[in-house]
Amino acid sequence: MHVNLDLKVLYFGTPVVLIGTRNADGSANLAPMSSAWWLKQSCMIGMGNRSKTTENLLRERECVLNLASADMAAAVDRLAPLTGTFPVPQAKAAKGYRYEADKFGAAGLTPQASELVGAPRVAECPIQLECVVDAVHTFAETASAVEVRVVRAHVEERLVIPGTDHVDPVGWDPLIMKFCEFFGRGEYVHPSRLAEAWRMPHQGLTPTG
Ligand SMILES: Cc1cc2nc3c(=O)[nH]c(=O)nc-3n(C[C@H](O)[C@H](O)[C@H](O)COP(=O)(O)O)c2cc1C
């Protein structure tokens, strides 16, 4: 039996991407996002227009999509309440966001220079995709769907199927954001400040492992 719901959130479960962009002063910004889908060598990323990331994408026309693995949930969660925008937009401040200039330091992650773009890679991410922006579309009134194309892919050696240009799907364990909560291998792995900020009604979840 099905019931009709006025569903508040449609984030059914998508991989977490740490998107690296370059600020106007040349410094690095890093933000977690999970509205990303892939076709051929391109990716469509959905970002709110008030984020520093969107501002940087529109100006610099490039980014790095760093794919987070499930064991990076704590670092991703440390980034969750932060923005590179100063002053913090009112709607974000009301949700508890604060400004942070050094996102890498705050997350405990290591910036790594890219080869073709000015945006930073995240050394801890096993898959890092350097991208250029091909097009920007208005989306859901206050957001942008940014169409990017991968121009260089970096994959940790242990995840490569030997002798091929393919990732081993068994070895790769993506961090999944499901209804604002963190999952890996189908299991709840870490409490989520995003779920807290959104006042999600999830109760009594206990991380496994
Ligand atoms: C797991 C996770 C997934 C997120 N996914 C998105 C997303 O797909 N699109 C988006 O606009 N914001 C998303 N956010 C919120 C942004 O990370 C947040 O707006 C952040 O402040 C952006 O940083 P910036 O302003 O420095 O770019 C997500 C946050 C978390 C923790």
TrEMBL record:
Highest taxon of the lineage: Bacteria
Gene3D superfamilies per UniProt: Electron Transport, Fmn-binding Protein, Chain A
Ranges for domain Flavin reductase like: 9-167
Endoplasmic reticulum listed as a keyword: no
Manganese as UniProt keyword: no
SMART domains (UniProt xref): Flavin_Reduct
Sequence similarity: Belongs to the flavoredoxin family.
The protein, known as: NADH-FMN oxidoreductase RutF, flavin reductase (DIM6/NTAB) family
Species this chain originates from: Glycomyces harbinensis
